[in-house]
Write the structure tokens for this entry.
Amino acid sequence: MWKEVTIDAWIEGRKSSLEEARVTVTGIIGRVRSDGDNALRELSRHYKLTEIAVTEEEREQAYDEVDVKIVESLIEAEARIEYFHERQRPRDLWLEEVEPGIVLGMKTTPLNRVGIYVPGGRAPYPSSALMCAVPARVAGVPEICACSPPPISPMTLVALDIAGVTEIYKSGGAQAIAAMAIGTETIPPVQKIVGPGNIYVTLAKMMLREHAEIDFPAGPSEIGIIADHTADPRIVAADILAQSEHDPNAACILITTDPDLPGKVGREITALTLKAPRREIIEQSLVNSGYAVVRDLDEAIGASDAVAPEHLSIQVADPLPVVTRVRNAGAIFVGKYSAVACGDYAVGTNHVLPTAGYAKTYSGLDVNHFCKTASVEMITRDGLEAIGDIVETIAGAEGLHAHAESVRVRRKG
């Protein structure tokens, strides 16, 4: 299971089989488009779905079914997530006089209606409910709807309620994405869909972007670890297993300058896996994992940037220079005590992150995903005189004479 790999081979092996799912997802989208709520009921294979919307009574009952300590922990986690994301919130409006007679600025407006997807297949994910909903609420989105596969875990219902979600629907998979993007009799369409999921969910999000914008492709979990001789093998192994237990398709890679470290980590992985409750999933995931030994930290950073991992753990003697030089990562965890699991739950940062190399071009989920901006221009006569010749000259060069005239007529007035 624990094997040496080349970076190129690991990247190639990580590519998801999205194209293999395209025919299935296309069919599901078509059924939701034509049959609406009935399609959602028929596609709910493992659960007899009658009412699609979660009622207020079901929300309240969920609190009775969840241990008080778990509820308290979710409340505390929500507060930490809110605190971090409040610091991301842009100003509603800023204006600056850039020169006499010209005031420029930016107006930020929250989206009106968004949808969040909360996975629920192999385990409940109340943490993902918080991660998706809290930044939307902080941004000021008035309507936040959520879909999750039925039966929705009471923990997930409690988390969605704590996070301020306005509507909750019992629907999972590609059909839930289609319902939020296109709309059904029960679920009104949204402007944007966020949240992680399997390849069917991810592909549905990508295929339906003409109806609803998305955050980014977010598939099976992954971790990259840059480590030197100072790294603790047991901690490295523990972080690998933490990501491996998510999903059989999860992937982990250790990039190290220490040729002795992989063997030590491998022995720890074996010992920890034997005791792991989710051993079967971990063993399947470890098939996708491996290690690469490099000459120095320069090569390690280059390899990590090629991987562009969802989570990057830096376990080296002097980590900050590595942090400053790394370019591609969804979230960066620095030092032996910065467990990725802390980012998953309670430190306050967001765990909804781009996977499969998309960290090269996408950022993790934040408040800005739920906002749109418009530039603001305020120009006086003096300001128009300052730029009028430039506008008329370029407009004339482009052959857009009415553009030039719209400025000329003002200057003559």
Notes: Residues 68-86 form the longest helix (19 residues).
